[in-house]
Amino acid sequence: MNPLIIKAKLLNRMSKEIVEVEKRVHPLQEAVSGITIKSPEDFTIAVELGGQLKTAQKFITTKKELLTKPLNEALKNARDMFRPFETSLENLEKMLKGKMLDFKAEEDKKRIALENRVEKGTMKQETATVKVQEMTQKTERSETGAKATETFRLEYNVVDKSQIPLQFLVPDMVAIKQSFREGNPVAGVEVKKVASISL
Questions:
Q1: 3-class SS of residue 147
Q2: pLDDT digits over 150-173, tens only?
């Protein structure tokens, strides 16, 4: 079937669904905007309105999923179809980069050996400088324009937590909440009761 026809049918179906949804939502917008709660009876009316809101939300979710579930399934299938190739290329890239870094590590060893020869006096500084410059080129380009750039990043590893200043430590809120639930308050933490209403 022609993609333009499929798109037109989908848009037509969406328009019909939106009309139905608007019919449900509009009266609720007016009711919630206009309600004033000043008595227990008003509160009961608000509870009923909350129930209607939840029903409308379920109705909208059902209507939405009539359209989105087939689209999501098609999207998932398309992603699954290409995933093995993407994964294969990612693994190949990692393997290639590993081999390139191994080569660069060997070049570094050679550079250090050249520097040692200069220090021992078995090689002239000028000769070593030329050879080191050839080895330390950061960006390599092929004839087709492909390039590889060697970059360095700093890696930070904690070697002794006890020496880290307090300002860099983050409290573990999950563990703190669990401790309170078990009846063990945590010093420096206060518990506040915050009200909310669920419908």
A1: strand
A2: 776 778 888 998 898 888 888 999
In this structure, what token pair is assigned to residue 12? 């037509």
| Residue 161 to residue 28: CA distance in whole angstroms | 56
Q: What is the pLDDT of residues 53-98, one digit of tens each?
A: 999 999 999 988 988 898 899 899 999 999 999 999 999 999 999 9
Partners of 139 in beta bridges: 149
Please state the φ and ψ torsions of residue 3, each to the nearest 5 degrees. -60, -30
> Alpha helix (H) ranges present in the chain?
3-34, 40-120, 125-135, 173-181
Please report the DSSP string for 171-183 in residue order.
--HHHHHHHHHTT
Owner of token pair 């993609």: 3
Place of tokens 């290639």: 96
Sort strands 139-141 and 147-149 into parallel, antiparallel or unpaired: antiparallel
Coil/strand/helix, residue 122: coil
**CA distance linking residue 127 with residue 134, whole number of Å:** 11
Report pTM. Answer: 0.50
Q: What is the pLDDT of residue 177?
A: 94
Rounded to an integer, what distance in angstroms lies between the CA atom of residue 96 and that of residue 102?
Answer: 10
CB 25 within 8 A of CB 56: yes
Cα distance between residue 34 and residue 55, in whole Å = 20
Phi-psi region of 188 (alpha: psi -120 to 50; beta: other; left: phi over 0): left
